[in-house]
Every structure is written in structure tokens, then in C-alpha cells.
Amino acid sequence: MAQARGASGDKRKWIIGIGAVVVVAALVIGGVIWTISDRNKTEGKVISPGETTSALGDDVTQKRDGVVVTVGKTGAKATIDVYADFLCPICGEFEKQYKSQVEQAVNDGKLQVRYHMVPLLNERSSPPGYSLDSANAALAAADAGKFVQFHDALFANQPEEGKRGYDKAQLIELGKNVGITDPAFAQTVNAGTYDQQLNTAFQQIENDPKLAQDFGGGQRGFGTPTVTANGTIVSWQDPDWLKKVTG
CA 20 to 30 Å from 115, out of 39, 224, 230, 232? Predict the structure, then answer.
């Protein structure tokens, strides 16, 4: 009888052990599936264009010059240069904080903004490449006169750093949704027409000592977002920085 009880106990331990392994395996598999799903949550998503009509007035121009897009009225008193990456989360915060103030200054004829899209985090999306693809698409949108709408929609629906960005098909669909009808837009996005120019400009930006900042711990270099006025870096963390720039 003792042997029978012992065998029964061993069997119960064996069953419990197998059950524990199954539970752990299920948790691991579930965790992996959730991680992949979370990482790829932008897949198949339609990027919301928000208000397809910009808050900027009709007399505000949007002009591409190389890989820089200037937005504003001719004769504006002040000009700022904004260097940003569509994947950069701090750039997204900058947009949330100051978008309306910048738009108002532009509408009032006080400010022109020169936008530099930099692929700083190009290796930080999964798969890599979103920073460059989105920058190229934004320049294509500028060619169609829809840069601001496209730019604002990408930041309003910003992917997370380290996760999947938006693919070219999604960027093309956003272009349609903000009112771009010229077939050249899709061709430019698919071909990566401005990729080489963007990469060349980015190398120059990274090596420009005037754009280098101290990040603490002895680290110094270029980062996003960077805002300059008259060739000098502006401390945009100062709530009154725009008032100081526009006078």
C-alpha cells in the first residue's frame, strides 16, 4: 500500500510539473505574441489626416528648396530653422507644445519657419528606415503644396521609437487624404527620390559645430529637436522663446 501511495504521489507531482511547464510556456508564447503585436500596431493603420485644411492662412506659402521647406509670408520679421525627425518623441512633444503659437506667428507675418527633416533615428524603427521614408514623403508633399498638413498628421499620429513606423503605402495614402492628387507624389515616395539628398544634408548637419549641444556626462553633438534663429541655437524649453525670437 505504501508503494501504491508513493507511486500515486509521484504521478501527481509529475502532472503538476507538466501543468506548470504548460502554463509557463503559454505565458511566454502569449508574451511574445503580445510584444510582436504591440511592436507592429501601426501595420495596416490609416494615418488620420485630422483637419485637412491647415490653420495657416491662404497667403502663407509652403516652398521646398532642396531638402528644406520654408513656410511663411514674404517679408516676415524673423526666421527659425527647426531640425526634427518624425520618429523623435521629443520632437513630437515640441510640436504639441508650440504648434499653435508658431502657426499664429506665421499667420501674423512675424515668422517664417525653415523645416529640416533629419533621419537621425533611421535605425530606431522596426524595421529600420521610417525616419528617411517619412522625410522623403514630406518633401514630396511639399512639392504638392501640402507639406504642413502632411507634417502635422505624421506628428499627430507618431509611431513609437523602437517599433514599426509607417510603410510607403501608408504614407502615400496619407498624401491622398490630405488632398494630394498629383501621381508624382506616389512615385517620389516609392522611389525614395530625395533619400540621397537627405542623407548628405544630415551628414553636414551632424558635423556642423554650430548645431552641436551639450547633453551632460561629457556628451556633445547634434540632437533633435534643434531650433535656431539667426544661426544660434534657441533654448525652446524656455516658454517665452518664441516671443523673444519674434520680438
Answer: 39
Q: How many contiguous H segments (helices) and E segments (strands) does the chain have?
A: 8, 8
Cα-based angle 243, 245, 247 (whole degrees, multiple of 5): 60
Which residue do the cell numbers 505624421 mark?
Answer: 154
Contact 125, 87 (CB under 8 A): yes
Strand, coil or helix: 113: strand
With vertex at residue 203, the alpha carbon angle to CA 112 and CA 151, rounded to the nearest 5 degrees, is 40
| Domain regions of the chain by residue span | 1-39, 61-246
Residue given cell 511639399 in the structure block? 142
- What pLDDT, in 10s, does the model give residues 58-112? 899 999 999 999 999 999 999 999 999 999 999 999 999 999 999 999 999 999 9
DSSP letter assigned to residue 24 = H
Structural contact between residues 104 and 166, judged by C-beta atoms closer than 8 angstroms: no
Question: Cα(6)–Cα(156) distance, rounded to whole angstroms?
Answer: 65
Taking the model in full, what pTM does it have?
0.84
Secondary structure (DSSP) of 195-217: HHHHHHHHHHHHT-GGG-EEEET
Domain 61-246 homologous superfamily, CATH = Glutaredoxin (3.40.30.10)
Please tell me the distance from the alpha carbon of residue 138 to that of residue 149, in angstroms, as a whole number.
10
